[in-house]
Amino acid sequence: MKKMGDHNSITRRLYLSVALMLTLSLSSFAQDAAPAATAAPAAETAAPAAATAGDPVKGKDLFNTNCAACHKLDAKATGPALRGISGKHDKAWLYKWIHNSGDLIKSGDAAAVKVFEENNKVPMTSFPQLSEADIDNIIAYTSEPKAAAATAPAAGEKVPGADANEGGVSNNVILGALTLVMAILIVMLFLVNNVLRKVAAANGINVAPKEPTLPIWKAFVKNQFLVLVTSIFLLLASGYFVYGYLMQVGNDQEYAPIQPIHYSHRIHAGSNGINCNYCHSAARVGKTAGIPSLNVCMNCHKNISEVSDTTATAEYSKAFYDGEIAKLYKAVGWDKDAQKYTGKTQPVKWVRIHNLQSFVYFNHSQHVNVAGVECQTCHGPVETFEIQKQFAPLTMKWCVDCHRKTEVKMEGNEYYAKIHEQLSKKYGVEKLTAAQMGGLECGKCHY
């Protein structure tokens, strides 16, 4: 009998290979499943607040209401930093200073005159309505130790509990097991094919060779109907894609350039709830919304030189935002330490985002003030944008569709009352759309 080969040897080798791969997979799984030794840094023991009779919680509310416009706890603003102020002046002096600083300065008090001169001789508002108990509460708040800033995890650092499969089987282990099974099946099929070939050769069985077939491209060329249909399809498809490409020329939807000073609409319009028209005041009375002057920024940022810790995100840190405020100060020539303008300014080269073609006329005041269109209609939910982008395509089709579905605001507009009544009867509607009022006439936007 003819020997077909040592199949036991092949089987043993296959089993050894499978055992080795399973051992490596289990070892990797054990390493992934083992809890990482994370030693939480010992929390710093907060220093006890200065022994005062005040309530720091109430003091925080009073500070934010009466003091925060000119003072910060840890940085100089219009007035000096107030953290630890109780260690610099006695309580009786603070009562007099807060109640009426002007009288204390006029009396010639040396400490009062010194504070007045150190802060550019800016008079402090008197607060006679604050009782001594209220002042004690404010002092208690300013005497609290500064909280340590929470450090965000470094890029790529694993946060405990962030892994969705923590405590279970890792996805990598599952994929590795599936890959191993597929590899075993391929090896088994290869071995079976070799065994069958050897069995056929041993029994004198001849495997019929494959008959040559006509190449597919020759069969395609001989079928004239198929060639005609394919040619028509390719012509139509080419025309469709060429038309689509040409229609994108000049369409800058989703365009979001990087500005020289990072401005977050998410923080200003979203978190702080600043109205769009506060910065873009020209939108109510003019053709364009206008670029806000940096002086508008300084209305708030004169006393806001840094953001709160809660403002930072995973992508933009607190240090990043503080650095952008520093760029603003450099552009307007503001010395935050001396609390005055230096006179050295630098122009900011903002990058324009929305840019209509020169043959298109669009008036912001007509839409914002007269029609009452919300800014978000054209510019999207800007209160959620970290980086401002072009939300709408601003194409002619987009504008026409808006005119066709937007009803004309007639309340308090007697000028169009007669024509509105006539057109309402003509179209058989109670409220006219901008299109029915002539909003689709070419001369409305192109003249």
TrEMBL record:
Domain Cytochrome c as annotated: residue spans: 54-146
Secretion signal span: 1-30
SUPFAM superfamilies on file: Cytochrome c, Multiheme cytochromes
Transmembrane segments: 173-192, 225-246
Molecular function (Gene Ontology), one example: electron transfer activity
Pfam family, one: Cytochrom_CIII
Alphabetized UniProt keyword annotations: Electron transport, Heme, Iron, Membrane, Metal-binding, Signal, Transmembrane, Transmembrane helix, Transport
InterPro entries found in the cross-reference section: Cyt_c-like_dom, Cyt_c-like_dom_sf, Cyt_c_III_dom, Multihaem_cyt_sf
Highest taxon above the source species: Bacteria
Name of the molecule in the record: Quinol:cytochrome c oxidoreductase pentaheme cytochrome subunit
Organism: Flavobacterium fluvii
Lineage: Bacteria, Pseudomonadati, Bacteroidota, Flavobacteriia, Flavobacteriales
